[in-house]
Each structure stands twice: as C-alpha cells, then as structure tokens.
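How a chain folds remains the central question behind the approach discussed here. This step matters because it turns folding into a mapping between discrete strings. The sequence in question and its structure tokens are set out directly beneath this paragraph.
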Amino acid sequence: MTFEYKKRIETHISDETIGKLLDSLKMERAFFTDSSFSSPWSIDLPAMPNCMMFHLVLSGKSHFEIEGETFDLSTGDFILFPKGEGHRLSDGTCQQYTNLNALPIKAVSARYETLTFGGGGAQTKMICGVLLFQHPLTIKLLGILPTYIKIDADNREAISIVESLNHLLNGESKIIGVGAEAVVTRLSEVLVITAMRQYLKSLNGKKLGWLGALEDDRIGKSLSLIHDSPEKHWSLEGLAQSIGMSRTSFVQEFKRLVGNTPMDYLSEWRMSLAYARLQLTKDTVLSIALDVGYQSEAAFSRAFKKIIGKPPGEVRKAYQTNTDIKPEC
C-alpha cells in the first residue's frame, strides 16, 4: 500500500466557521513577565488597547479586581482580558496598589522580563503576558468579547489543557535559552485559543453579535463564500443567488445579523486580509491587491485608505519599524 503523502497534505480539513475564525487569530507581538510575588503585595495594571492581557497562576493565589467585581485565582487557574481592560491584582490584604511603571521589572530580553515584588511573606508565582493585535478583524472580534474570561478547576475539559500548558510554561520560564521565547509565545497562543473556545462554547447557542451570523444557515454560508474566496468579483446579486435568497431579503437579513451590508463587509474582509499580508509578508502591494479582488494597485490603495485610515505603504512601514520593539499598548 502506497502512502500518498501529497494527497493527504492537500486534503482540505473542514472546520466550523468559528473554528476557522479562531485559527486566524495571529498575535503581532508579545511579551511576558515571569512574576514572583510575596505577601503583602498589590499592583495596578492600566488598560492596554488592542491587547490581550493574561495571567496564569503557577503556584499560590491571587485576588483580582475589575470594574467592581472581585474574585480569587489559585494554582493552575488562568484568566484572559481580551480587550486589555485595566485591573488590579493582589494577595487580598494589601490595599496600597503599586502602578505598573513603578514595579522593579528586569528585562531579560526584548520580550521577556522578570518581576520579584512584595513583603517577603506567602509566595505566588505567575506568568503574566501581553499580546498585541492590530488586525482589524481580530479587533472586531475582541470588541464583542466579555471583559474577562477565566478557566478554573471546575472546568475539567479545559483545565486539563491548561494544566499541561502550565507545566510547559513553568519549565520554559526557567530556561531563557535558544528558542525559549518562541516556545512561550506559541504556548500562550494555545492558552488564548483554549480560553476563547471555552467561552464561545459556554454560550450554548446564544447569539453574540455578528458571531451569531456565522452559525446562520444562509447568512453564514454567504460569510463563508466571502471568507474563502475574497478575490472573486462578487456582486450583491451573485451572493444572494448563491444562498438562495432574494437581493432585498439578503441585504436586510445580513445587515440585521452582521451589522452592515454584504458589500461593505466584503470590502472590510478584503482589507483585513490585505492588512495582515502587508505586515507579515514581503508581497508587493499589486500582488496583494490582485489576490483580494482588485484589478489595479491604485483602486486597492484608495479602498484600503478609506477603510483602514492609512495607505498600504504606511501600514507596512510602521510595522517594519516597530517589529522588534516591545509594544507600548
């Protein structure tokens, strides 16, 4: 029996629409703090727009405060702040909060640092991270997520993943050697996706903004057509016919579920893809334009600036300038 590896590699793996969306989340930059706290301690973290912030408790416990809510996390617990909301964390007794800028953080590398802070009492060890996103579609998704998502020991399905990643992250955080930063970054990506998957699963079919549209039989199909073939010269009539709806009904239902018109969404999706490629590839602006359905660089550049607010060249230049700089988000 011949092992046809090429055929297997080329086989399309089907996935639910939301699964594809989560898979498309790509952080642009990240940095991490190996944090060791000892009671009494308390810190105040400012809001960081366009960033995800997370904390993984490796040992001990931590008390959190955000928007009037308070709760505790202990060993193995994980919390994600999808929109980078400001919050406080402490040992639960200290009320004299120290601002992030005043903490004795020591840079180990451009993206990895250590922090030892507190009064010498009971110990808490955490991995704290900030992940920067600038992809417009990602920011759109983050905007409709809750202030925080936490995974604790009661969630047996997710906690097994967190526990495994906890062990790996704890080990990597002690070895700042070749490839350690890359490993921690990838592990953190898995943690983030795990947390978001669990949250979306917990909705039990409830609609969450335009994510609900992804699960609608007809509008979801139209979104899949746009996502999978952005280069196609779609017309409103063509999209409507592809899903078996009249032009008027399609526009009305699409706008109700998604929030804007099909053609506006198509333009935004194309620019989201172009935005990512401008930053993450060396492809020419013309080749990107052609791949997202434009027949000339000039037409693409005009549309890109109208939607993104900056010309393609400026987006690429800004990313290349800041790639090796820790995000000040």
The chain has two domains: 17-202, 211-322. The radius of gyration is 22 Å. Confidence is low (pLDDT under 50) at residues 8-15, 323-329. The chain is about 45% helix and 20% strand.
